[in-house]
Design goal:
The chain is of the alpha/beta class. The chain is about 35% helix and about 15% strand. The protein binds pyridoxal-5'-phosphate.
């Protein structure tokens, strides 16, 4: 699928990096793992110099476009004054103020460097606040690499047991068995199961953590009333509702899923689009809960206010506020979704679209998908056959059907047209 330089770099990389990459998700397989030279706007170039329309957007962070000049200029200006002080500066206070202004449920925030850290800290705070240990998460949701929630994320769904009594499955060796006692898993959108579990265990549950949509499983949308049910039941049981907005935050609306669904979680977590690719994350929420930090509750990190990340967030949020970024992405993304749907349906393919114009997915051979168990029944071989052909023709969604297509402000109407032309051609080859 890729050229000779890619193959030789992969061989070199495999000698010094496990699988030849620095995150398991970047390994697509022997001889089909891409290696990247550079990116600009909506495009990516591999090390062989081939250009792609990029729909991975680094798994979501790139909301304005790769190497956005305005963001980079602000970062350069700031890092020339020093990159790290392990003391507090004005810019991070301003970014915190911007998040509080934009995210309806956030009254106070703390920064971190990655989504993994943000969810890990939010879970610590929720446990400290409630004095409870149990965490409830949904199958197919991913909240980062820590042991607390790396359960039932991407295992084969057969291992999850019966949906009435799901088995939490660790997504890695090395997660202590004892952690199993601290986690409950359920299918997403399972109204009945969620009510049953909250009736039985609600008062022992520290936090219910959920992505608003399944951003790590085909962007499966919440069914109407599901997020509201989580809100109501957690409130009733005194559990903390953590909305993991690492993928939806500053992407599906300036105020994220909270604004989109008019839902107020107790805590929310952010990373990705917050910094347009710079290393910055945040968690925040109700003042009453966040205020316990520092009063017997530990949270920190040497790099939590690193200047590149904070300056990246400052410039990104400023542009989201001053330009019609998400509106433009929504219009182009909708056109792309509609165009793809038409192509698939005209070619007699049964397909279900999920997600939002700024991050969407499609699953073949099914009418609808409401949870990872449904998604597992869709035709992944067809998705993959199309994806591999698209990549050969210079259109790059992620190889993995669970990973949504992401758009950025720089994707042009011409890019959408080109993508639709490519899919109209390749769909005929794989039918
Ligand atoms: C919803 C969600 N939460 C948390 C994470 C972890 O974020 P990071 O990769 O920055 O550690 C991700 C990453 O994809 C995510 O999608």
């Amino acid at each position: 699928m890729f050229g000779s330089k890619t193959h030789s770099l992969q061989q070199r990389a495999q000698k010094v990096l496990p699988l030849g990459v620095n995150s398991n998700f970047r390994f697509w397989g022997e001889d089909i793992t891409p290696y990247v030279e550079k990116a600009k706007g909506g495009y990516l170039w591999d090390v062989d110099g081939k250009k792609y329309i990029d729909y991975r957007m680094a798994f979501g962070p790139i909301i304005l476009g790769h190497a956005c000049d305005e963001v980079d200029q602000k970062v350069i200006e700031e890092i020339q004054k020093g990159t790290l002080f392990a003391m507090t500066g004005e810019l991070e206070v301003e970014v915190a103020e911007m998040i509080v202004e934009m995210a309806p449920a956030v009254e106070m925030v703390r920064f971190a460097c990655s989504g993994t850290e943000a969810t890990m800290h939010a879970i610590r705070v929720a446990r400290a606040y409630t004095g409870r240990d149990l965490i409830l998460k949904f199958e197919g949701n991913y909240h980062g690499f820590h042991d607390h929630t790396l359960w039932s994320t991407y295992a084969p769904v057969e291992a999850y047991g019966n949906r009435r009594n799901p088995i939490p499955v660790p997504s890695s060796s090395g997660i202590p068995k004892a952690m199993r006692e601290l986690i409950i898993t359920l299918p997403f959108n399972d109204f009945e199961g969620f009510q049953r579990v909250m009736r039985s265990y609600g008062e022992q549950i520290a936090a219910v953590i959920s992505e608003p949509c399944q951003g790590n499983c085909a962007a499966i949308n919440p069914q109407e009333g599901f997020l509201e049910l989580i809100r109501a039941k957690t409130e009733e049981c005194g559990s903390v509702f953590i909305l993991d907005e690492v993928k939806t935050g500053f992407r599906i609306a300036n105020g994220g899923a909270q604004e989109y669904y008019r839902i107020k979680p107790d805590l929310a977590t952010y990373a990705k689009a917050l910094g347009n690719g710079y290393p910055v994350a945040a968690f925040g929420g109700k003042r009453e809960i966040m205020s316990i930090i520092g009063h017997g509750v530990a949270q920190g990190g040497t790099y939590t206010n690193n200047k590149p990340g904070i300056a990246g967030a400052y410039a990104t949020l400023s542009l989201l506020k001053s330009k019609p970024v998400l509106k433009t992405i929504e219009q182009r993304g909708q056109r792309l979704m509609n165009g793809l749907k038409e192509i698939f349906e005209d070619n007699g393919l049964q397909v279900a679209f999920t997600g939002y114009p700024a991050m969407f997915s499609f699953s073949f051979g099914v009418d609808s998908v409401t949870c990872q168990r449904d998604w597992a029944e869709s035709n992944h071989a067809l998705y993959l056959a199309l994806t591999e052909r698209a990549i050969q023709r210079g259109v790059m969604p992620d190889h993995d059907a669970r990973e949504p297509w992401f758009l950025c402000y720089e994707h042009s109407d011409a890019d959408i047209d080109e993508t639709l032309n490519v899919y109209a051609e390749i769909v005929k080859e794989v039918k």
